[in-house]
Each structure stands twice: as C-alpha cells, then as structure tokens.
Amino acid sequence: MSLYDDIEKVLIPEDVLQRRIAEIGAEMNGLYSDADYPMLVCILKGAFMFLADLTRQLAFRHEIDFMEISSYGGGTSSSGVVRILLDLASTIEGRHVVIVEDIVDSGHTLTYILRHFAARRPASIRVATLLNKPSRREVDVPLDFVGFEVPNEFVMGYGLDYAEQYRNVPFIGVLKAAVYQTAGDTSVPH
Ligand code: PRP
Predict the structure, then answer these.
(1) Do the beta carbons of residue 100 and residue 54 sit within 8 Å?
(2) How far is the C-alpha of 69 from the C-alpha of 78, rounded, in Å?
(3) Cα dihedral sign for 12, 27, 66, 131?
(4) Is the Cα torsion angle 186, 173, 16, 59 positive or negative in sign?
(5) Which domain holds residue 127?
(6) Lesser CB count within 10 Å: N end or C end of the chain?
C-alpha cells in the first residue's frame, strides 16, 4: 500500500508546476532588483516546496524567512481566527516583502497576515500564491502572483497536506473521498 493509492487524480503535473513557477520567477526578476533586496516570507508549512523552487528562479539578491500560522476553530477549513506559531526572525520595517503561500482559500489567513505585516511598516508587500481557490473566498485579498486557479476539490501534494501527510508528493493531486470520509471528515479542506 503506497500513499499514492490514496490519490484520485493528478490535477497539476510536476512539469507544469515547474514551468509556471519559472514564469513567476521571471516576472519577479523583472520587478525586483538587487537594490530592492526583498524578503520572501514563506508561510509554513504548506508553502515550503513552492518557496524552495521559486527562490531558485530568482536572480536578484533576497532573503527568506518563515512564519507559521495556525487557524483556530478545529476542522480543516480556515475559521478566520488565526494564531502565530512561529514569527519572523527578521524585521521587515522598510523592506520589500513577498508573502509566499501555497493556497488561498477563504482568504482569512492572508487577511490576517497582511494586517499583521502592515503594522510593521514594510516598504511594500506583494503576495505570491501557488494555488488560488476563488470559489471558496469569504474575504477579498490582493494577489500579485498566482500559479493556478483550482476548483473546489480536495487538493494535496507539493507541500499541501491532508492530516499532515502527502506534503512530499511532487505534484498537485486530488485525494480520494474515501480517505477523508473514513476519517469522518465531511468538509472539503484546501
Ligand atoms: C493553508 C494555507 C493557507 C491557508 C489558506 O494552511 O497554507 O495558509 O490554509 O486558507 P484560508 O484562505 O481559508 O485562510 P493550513 O492551515 O492548512 O496550514 P499548513 O500550511 O501548515 O498545512
């Protein structure tokens, strides 16, 4: 029994992901220069793989930092009440910041992060998200770089988990319903 047996289908294959990430990197290379010296902030845990591939496409000097956010309220969809598990190690005041997310769903997590960051007075803030699920949006959020729009399906892989598993899968896939129904989970996360 392999973890791949739990996957219904491949939604975005590895090569398609990598080509799009290269395009986003090229777009960023046109917008930022060494002088900007931006800070890429990876929102853990889901964005770790996107960050790792994106940063290797960038030709300007930049730093990376990490932040981990958890949503309260249980279940698998974001409640809008979030809490910081790991804060930035560096200061962002006066810095150009790029928030790197794996997916924007309801928009609550990003809204919280943007508000939190704005209070720290960065020079600018842009948002890069690999996936966007607009059908689930509850609050409007500005997105500057979007990899792919995805339907309201249970996407996993390439950093995105179900019950903390499947993050290592190198493509974006859709989980078999039986996997989360067996676990008694009736919501549609991610
Ligand atoms: C996911 C994702 C975003 C958030 C998006 O994180 O990485 O941060 O949910 O949902 P929202 O737009 O509805 O707020 P998750 O809480 O699954 O944590 P993880 O990245 O550690 O898996």
Answers:
(1) yes
(2) 11
(3) negative
(4) positive
(5) 20-151
(6) N
Distance 34 CA to ligand 1 centre (A): 31
Tell me if residue 134 falls in helix, strand or coil. helix
Q: What is the CA radius of gyration of the chain?
A: 16
pLDDT in tens, 53-68: 999 999 999 999 999 9
CATH number at residue 62: 3.40.50.2020
Q: Is the CB of 111 under 6 A from ligand 1?
A: no
Give this prediction's pTM: 0.94
Query: How far away, in angstroms, is 118 Cα from ligand 1 center?
Result: 20
How many structural domains is the chain composed of?
Answer: 1
**Active site positions, annotated:** 105
Which atom belonging to ligand 1 lies closest to the Cα atom of 68?
A: 21
For residue 70, give the ligand 1 atom closest to its CA: 16
Q: Which tens digits make up the pLDDT trace of 134-177?
A: 999 999 999 999 999 999 999 999 999 999 999 999 999 999 99
Largest CA distance in the chain: 52
Residue 167 lies in a domain: no
> What is the number of the ligand 1 atom nearest to the C-alpha of 136?
13
Q: What's the gap in Å between 43 CA and the centre of ligand 1? A: 8
Cα torsion 132, 134, 135, 138 to 10°: value is 120
Residue 99 domain-assigned? yes
Return the pLDDT at 75.
47
